[in-house]
Amino acid sequence: MGTVHTAGTTPEGGGLARRLPLLPVTEQTVQSVALLVARHVEAVLPAAASASLTLLRGRRARTVAATGLLAHELDEAQYTEGTGPCLDTARSGEPHLLADARVDERWPAHAAEARRRGTLSCLSVPVPREHGIRAAVNVYAEPAGAFVPDDVPAVAAELVGVAVVLANVLDHQDLVAAADGVRQAEESRAVIEQAKGLLMQEHGWDADQAFAELLRRSNDTNTRVRDLAAGLVSAAGRPTVS
Predict the structure, then answer these.
(1) Top-level CATH class of 176-237?
(2) 204: left (phi > 0), else alpha (psi -120 to 50), else beta?
(3) 8 Å CB contact between 6 and 131
(4) Coil, helix or strand at residue 19
(5) What residues does the ANTAR domain cover (predicted)?
(6) Rounded Cα–Cα distance for residues 69 and 146 (Å)
(7) What are the boundaries of each domain within the chain?
(8) How far apart are CA 4 and CA 2, in angstroms?
(9) I want to staple 11 with a disulfide (CB 3.0 to 4.6 A). Which of 40, 81, 143, 174 is the partner?
(10) CA–CA distance from 105 to each of 99, 116, 123, 124, 183 (Å)?
């Protein structure tokens, strides 16, 4: 079971698109970023009672952050059943709106659990599918008809740029962990170090300044750090080290 991170219902500061590029990646966790996103979307939809973020890695789905126990438990029930709006959205990359759990027949087990909890509405919107991220933001509300189709593009607009931040945080966590035998983490470390070395040589920077520049370019171009580093190394005519 994923860790539940609860918080209030209104995000601090400005809009999500303005805040995400300012996050210090090395100080974030997937949970902290996901919680920021869930809180923001919950605030965008006043009818929402609870929100969460589902992340798929391989075949495993987990709720990495939730603004309340309700969203976490409704998500987990779907994972156990193997189907439901949040799980199907994360898998397919398509949004799902459940307007009334009393009459919607697409997910019988979820609808029954939602009725039992008095939570009749659910909206699940995918995080844009970029950089290998498969995720969905899920919002639950008590009354039927709490969400409408027009809410889908409104929420989707708030999720632009989320994938690159999640990917960068995951990459950084992999690099810090540096687990033996994790080929992708080791290759990421090597190519990022190569790119840092090129920037240090070109600009006379230290390692921290070079990594900060990689993060800035990553945020500015919506490109994950690993891919950006590989591009810099390739442009310099250097073979990537693996």
Answers:
(1) mainly alpha
(2) left
(3) no
(4) helix
(5) 172-233
(6) 19
(7) 27-174, 176-237
(8) 6
(9) 40
(10) 11, 15, 15, 17, 44
Query: Which of 18-27, 155-164, 172-181 has the weakest average pLDDT?
Result: 172-181
Q: Residue 20 carries which DSSP code?
A: G
In the numeric block, the tokens 């929100």 are attached to: 51
Residue 21's pLDDT is what? Answer: 79
pLDDT of residue 5: 30
**Burial label, 22 (beta-carbon count in 10 A; 0-12, 13-18, 19+):** exposed
Task: Supply the DSSP symbol for 52.
Answer: E
Query: Smallest Cα–Cα separation from 27: which of 220, 227, 193, 211?
Result: 211
Rounded to whole angstroms, the Cα distance separating 224 from 210 reads 15
The mean per-residue pLDDT over the stretch 187-208 comes to 90
pLDDT at residue 177 in the model: 64
Q: Which residue has the tokens 């190394």?
A: 233
The three-class DSSP label of residue 138 is strand
Non-local CB neighbours of 24 within 8 Å, separated by 6+ positions = none
Q: What is the pLDDT of residues 117-135, one digit of tens each?
A: 999 999 999 999 999 999 9
**Considering only CA atoms, which of 74, 146, 78, 83 is closest in space to residue 116?**
74
Lookup result for tokens 């919107």? 125
In the predicted model, is pLDDT for residue 187 greater than 70? yes
How does pLDDT run across 155-173, given as a tens digit for each residue? 999 999 999 999 999 888 8
The CATH code that applies to domain 27-174 is 3.30.450.40
Q: pLDDT tens digit string along 206-225?
A: 998 998 999 899 989 999 99
